[in-house]
Amino acid sequence: MPHTASSLRRCCATALLSLLFSTGAFAAKPVDKEVFSFATVGDSREEPGAGLSRQDAIWLQNTRAWSRMLREIQATHPKALFFNGDMIMGYTTDKPTLNRQYAYWRGMVSHLMETGTYVLPVPGNHEVQEKFKDAQSGKTRKVARQSNEDSWRDNMGDLILDAERWPKIVGSHYAAFDPANHPQVGEADRISTDQTQLSYSFDVANSHFVVINTDPVGNDGHPPTAWLAEDLARAKERGSRRFFVFGHKPAYTYFYKPGIDLEGFDNDPPAQQAFWRLIEQYGATYFCGHEHIFSLMQPQKTQGGKAWQVMVGSGGSPFSAEKGDSKNPEDRTYAWAQVKVYQSGKVKLEIRGFDDSYGPTRSLRRLEL
Q1: In a domain, 204, yes or no
Q2: What is the pLDDT averaged over residues 44-63?
Q3: Exposure string over 309-338, b if 16+ CB within 10 A, otherwise e
């Protein structure tokens, strides 16, 4: 029986489809699976003084801003929240005061631990330093104290890292966490006290995470770069593909207006440069706070550098930029970072936040690291 035109077309189409399937032209593209997600922010403590609610005047916490952030972070279900220091006003060696302030902050974040987000604390200067007036010079000084490092461990140590709670909360396991892996007394980083649970690191999936204490006793305002170099090298040998470092003080001050004081490692340029060379070497991302502001920068971009400093010291503390200081409205935005890590090693970062009038939350930046 002769073929009609339509039957010939059907035969040709069938043959073409068969050829395409046999050559893999229609093979499904592999899905780049998300393997871990986290949020990060810092600096939620308040200053004593006028203008606070009766509640916040006691606890010295920006409850309104911080609780809203927590609700919105919780709604996105990240696996972890890294809080980059200054969760309490601190600046005292009085343990009852420190314990009371820590307890309020821990109460605020506790629901995250019950709903699938593990909280990882990073020490800030308000936690580890004492602020006092020097009797001889009459100047105000801020100095890290061993007793405050002890208070940090007393109040935050159970979170670093709980082998039973982590898999129950996160749904997967971490690896390569060694409680003894921290900067050691007497070595190159000028450490003079036990840094257990102040600087620590671990692996998740294909990524390595490091928390550093940027105000160790006797070497305030300095990162433990020598220890970090060894830690990152070991992580790379284990096969880590992405590296994330969390500290309180920035490597580079964000100049939201001319003439502000240096706030980070740039107070000691050789120390700053050694630290950032290491960050660039591993293509790491450094998350920090201390300045109460949001800033994204690639400090060495003009020299070919690709590493990012992500400053999210915008968790509720009084903004560094007062009204009129800056023409950038984002300098007075309560902002946090949300990060997704994929099996391929791709990393997506989004900054979200709301302005100082507590308007709607919006996406401020999106980029691939």
Answers
A1: yes
A2: 94
A3: bbbbbbbbbebbbeeeebeeebbbbbbbbb
Model pTM greater than 0.70? yes
310-359 pLDDT, tens digit each: 999 999 999 999 999 999 999 999 999 999 999 999 999 999 999 999 99
**150-189 burial: b if 16+ Cβ within 10 Å, else e:** bbbeebbeebbeeeeebeebbeeebebbeeebbbeeeeeb
Pairing of strands 294-297, 308-312: antiparallel
Residue with tokens 């000691």: 268
**CATH code at 222?**
3.60.21.10
Is 139 contained in some domain? yes
pLDDT in tens, 197-255: 999 999 999 999 999 999 999 999 999 999 999 999 999 999 999 999 999 999 999 99
How many separate domains does the chain show? 1
- Say if 94 falls within a structural domain: yes
Asked if pLDDT for residue 3 goes beyond 60, the answer is: no
Instruction: Quote the domain boundaries for residue 257.
Output: 36-368
